[in-house]
Amino acid sequence: MQTCEVCHTPFTWKQVSKSVALAYKPITCRTCKKRYHIRFSSRILASFLVVGPIGIFTFFSPSISMQLLMFIGFLVLLVNLMALPYLIRYRTA
């Protein structure tokens, strides 16, 4: 998890997840109030991790049963949403 460049306070998983869910809203450090914006490369990574599996599942959907496809899709979505806050990086505003 990324930390504040000024006071080295780590961002919480909740802060980063909320930022991503609210269209990449900036994060403010809890202790020193420094603002951080998501990096462009992290936006691209988040887009691929969320939208990419849809394309893969669309390609494989005719050869797999619908229940198995939905179960695998749910697992991939869950893993991506849990890992995303650890992969996203922010820059100072």
Write the layout of secondary structure elements.
Elements: H1 13-21, E1 27-28, E2 35-38, H2 40-60, H3 66-87, E3 90-92
Antiparallel strand pairs: 1-2, 2-3
Helix pairs in contact: 1-3, 2-3
User: What's the overall geometry?
Assistant: elongated
Query: Total helix count?
Result: 3
Look at the helices and sheets and give the structural class: mainly alpha
Contiguous uncertain segments of 5+ residues: none
Q: Radius of gyration from the CA trace?
A: 16 Å
Strand order of the largest sheet: 1-2-3
Order of H and E elements: HEEHHE
Number-wise, the strands total: 3
Biggest β-sheet strands, sense, barrel: 3 strands, antiparallel
- Report the helical percentage: 55-70%
Q: What is the averaged pLDDT score?
A: 88
Per DSSP, what share of the residues sits in E-state strands of 2 or more residues?
Answer: 5-15%
> In angstroms, what separates the terminal alpha carbons?
18 Å
